[in-house]
Amino acid sequence: MSHVAVDNVHGLEQQLAVLDLAAADGPGGGSGRRYIPPHLRNNEVFQNDGVGGWDAGRNTFVNGYHDNRLNGAQSFNRGPPRMERGRGGIGGGGYRGNRGGAFNPINAINPMQPMAFGGYENKDAGGWNAPKEPYGSFANNRGKSAFFNDRGGNANRGRFDHWAKQTPPNERLEHELFSGSNTGINFEKYDDIPVEATGQNVPHHIDSFQDIEMGDIVMSNINLTRYTRPTPVQKYAIPIIKTKRDLMACSGKTAAFLLPILSQIFVEGPGEALAAAKASGQDNGKYGRRKQFPISLVLAPTRELALQIYDEARKFSYRSRVRPCVVYGGADIGQQIRELERGCHLLVATPGRLVDMMERGKIGLDFCTYLVLDEADRMLDMGFEPQIRRIVEQDSMPPKGLRQTMMFSILARDFLEDYIFLAVGRVGSTSENITQKVVWVEESDKRSFLLDLLNATGKDSLTLVFVETKKGADALEDFLYREGYACTSIHGDRSQRDREEALSQFRSGRCPILVATAVAARGLDISNVKHVINFDLPSDIEEYVHRIGRTGRVGNLGLATSFFNDKNGNITKDLLDILVEAKQEVPSWLESLAYEHQHKSTTRGRSKRFSGGFGARDYRQTSATNNPGGFGGRGGRNQSVHGGNRGFGGGGGFGNFYSGDGYGGNYSHSQVDWWGN
DNA sequence: AAAAAAG
Fold first, then answer.
1. pTM score, two decimals?
2. Could you tell me the pLDDT band of residue A82, with boundaries at 50, 70 and 90?
3. Which nucleotide has the shortest C1'-to-CA distance from A378?
């Protein structure tokens, strides 16, 4: 049980200190001279249309949600969601509420600053624009009273400020949540990671968690998790999200979005969502009781990842009134429904189960103003597009611009509005803290080669073995088991219970060898994986990068060994690129193979997802065209720009994204996978 | 010739 003194002295001065107020042309500025990456150019915000998004409907807010749901077409009339209200800044508009205002020089002042003038004099804007920062010095009372006045006398509304107060500690829960600590993290490595943010009015990044006011609850939980300093993504993402901007980032640690979202929820309270949930509780509809209206939704591609995010959310919402929930397939839905019914403010979900829940009337997204798509590219690859559109666009979720959307991948800008693009160099993928080895191993030799590797590995270090098929995973696990190794496996044909059991046995070290399919490649954060073995190489380089990213986490050293043979021709070139980029040893045979392969294959098609209307192609085509400055391109080398998660070379800056030598030659990724998809 | 996710 630890007590954390949160030093509120940091408030405004600290924030001002980190703001680059003087530099209108700097990262915080909005000068027209600033480079606007092509993927942002068509954004309506830059077209100065001066039409205020929901302004038209602003006065028609009717202090309730029932009305809105009946006339779905007029969703703008439901009144601005929470995030719009405090949008403040000076000069009234607030960033999104006044699109033309993006070019107003006054907005060059960083919106992160909790300014309290502006919204007040404007009667019309009053309630929404008045900051309600309980932490911001002078914003306090005025902001709140304006808020209350505007809302009328709904009793529920008045309670929101309690959400910023810590609830009493619970020793047992605290131990459960925080005892598995992260140890041995080499944070120094982080400081080398380059980050580039593009977009209008990019808030200044923070250098420590104390640099931005996140409130007692969040700060206390940060301390309990022993996160000493923010990762590069967090340094940038936290202020961006706190200033209510949409965000697209190549990679993200869960905390990069959870911390600022929770912090905002604590500040702003449940708003309509609470009222709606309460009303729903009294309304025994067709499907029974209680529809929940989460304030924030996090979508993830795999069940295990959803679970992991949920676990993090539980930590960061400890001692608060926010109740996180998770829903995913393969588990008892009744149990999940009962959990939901106990209250759900932040929902983590896999798409399929969420749609199910929505259809059962258990979840309403009407007041979901924070949407996170984790591993969005992966979800689209996996064919979740219809379900995601169903969730995001074809139901009651506030439209973009009225909600805040954070996406960790570079696809699907359909869902974003006036966003900031964060390009973050990777830690622990192709960076130098992973030693990547590629060895030529014929199919028939793989097993014995694997045994050699396992024998050479220390008994207590974790080894993750990737195979390409579920069948292959079972077979290899059997084999290893018969050979006397403590191992387990995870793949999509195993029951959810077995999957979770396998993961926990692996994590705990009871089974230090895990044989896995792609299900375990992304996002899973298992500390202490010393060795990733690609028993079968994937056909997609992105998948490769994610797999090896399971080792060398958070600055630790890791080893990745890949078995290569003539079945892996399709990945040769990209693999070579990755090795070079990460300054790894390149076997000479791989180099010559890549050369041959390049001259063999002539026309390459595009994979499905490039034609999916998500703007992905636009981005990819253009992303390599310009170097926004500061991170010199590498010129000459033909880097693949494929895949948002292929950040930037370990120490090499931003070469492969903004190669500076034009689009054409950079587009080298094999667009057709092994199965011609 | 596959994996993932709803059941």
1. 0.65
2. very low
3. B4
